[in-house]
Amino acid sequence: MRMMFKAWVKKLFGADYRRLARIIFTELVVFWGLRLGEISIRILPQALWLMSGVSAAALMWQALSAKDNAAYLQHMRMLPYDEWKIIVSYAAALGCYVFLTKTVLLLAVAAAVSDVTPFEIAVSISFAVGGLLLAVGCFLGKNRGTTGSWLCGLPSGKSPRRRNTYQRYAMRRYFFRYLTEHKNYLANTAILWGVAAVLPFLFPQMESRYVIPVGLAVLTVNTPMGTLLSADPALEQAVRLLPGGGRMFLAPYGLLLFCGNLLADSIFLGSLQLYRGGVTGFLAVAVGCLALLGAMGSVLLEWFWPVRGWRVESDLWHHPRKYVIPAAVLLLAVWVCF
């Protein structure tokens, strides 16, 4: 089991653990940057404990549900080891990865901006570890009886026939099938639409010309939908190699993102009109243009600058590139509103 654990750790952190060194260095830079900036925020200990536990559990569940390690898991399963040892080593390595990359960063930020005692940090760590174990237990309970099939990334039952994922299906059918298989993408989009409905009520003291740019920028951050090619290197390779594949894929993909952005922005403007009023036809047209530009920018980023070198899907979704398009939309919205 120790050998399998080391194999998983090297898979996640790199063969020489350089990725771990970069992560620790980044967390130290964030801590001292906030500390020297003399930013002070009061954080209740109970809130910090809750954030540590809930975030660790959610990120661990997200990492366990990812299918990006399916091939590696299948290769590990071919080794003469007990499946439960593979599961324990995989979960332990993944738990260490989530804790060191996400939980430690959260605690570093909290310690930098608030007067957090060592006891509160220790309790937060225990809550985070509890959240990791809870996520593993719930995930295994949900997949009880299908352990082997989960390990090899295939549905349970008889050995399925090999299917060509990139057959000549209409792109709208492909997107429908892809999103139904990745329900977390749809859930994230639905949550974003819910945020759009309540955003105007979160800034009651701010003028509309300040609320609108912030709201439009926030609603552009739909990371799962904006990283379809980065999340599936095989799909990206097929799209780039097929004659006319870029045109065949990118246009429907941009239309999908545009519809999602437009619906979120429409909900936001409708809620703003009900709460404050003052939404004009010019503003509605400008918001539609910004939704189109945001979708086009996301597609161009995916095509020319896809995210590389990520280990688990949570790394992909939290990549700094996700803020490029919202920052551009924010600047354009400020220009429109002022």
Description:
With 338 residues, the protein is mostly helical. It has 2 domains: 2-151, no CATH class; 171-337, no CATH class. The protein is built from 16 helices and no strands. The chain has helices at 2-13, 18-36, 45-65, 70-77, 83-113, 118-142, 147-151, 171-181, 183-202, 208-219, 228-231, 233-241, 245-275, 281-304, 313-317, 324-337. Helix 1 packs across helix 5 (83-113) and helix 9 runs parallel beside helix 13 (245-275). Residues 145-150 and 152-169 have low confidence and may be disordered.
Fold blueprint:
Elements: H1 2-13, H2 18-36, H3 45-65, H4 70-77, H5 83-113, H6 118-142, H7 147-151, H8 171-181, H9 183-202, H10 208-219, H11 228-231, H12 233-241, H13 245-275, H14 281-304, H15 313-317, H16 324-337
Helix pairs in contact: 1-5, 2-5, 3-5, 3-6, 5-6, 9-10, 9-13, 10-13, 10-16, 12-13, 13-14, 14-16
Structure summarized in a few sentences:
This protein has 338 residues and is mainly α.
- Taken as a percent bin, the fraction of beta residues is under 5%
What is the distance, rounded to the nearest whole angstrom, between the alpha carbons of the first and last residues? 62 Å
User: Main beta sheet: strand number and arrangement?
Assistant: none
Radius of gyration in whole Å, from Cα?
22 Å
* Unreliable sequence segments: 145-150, 152-169
Task: State the domain count.
Answer: 2
Mean pLDDT: 77
Helix content: over 70%
Name the overall outline: globular
Q: Compute the number of strand runs.
A: 0
How many H/I helices? 16
Instruction: Name the structural class.
Output: mainly alpha
Q: Helix and strand succession?
A: HHHHHHHHHHHHHHHH
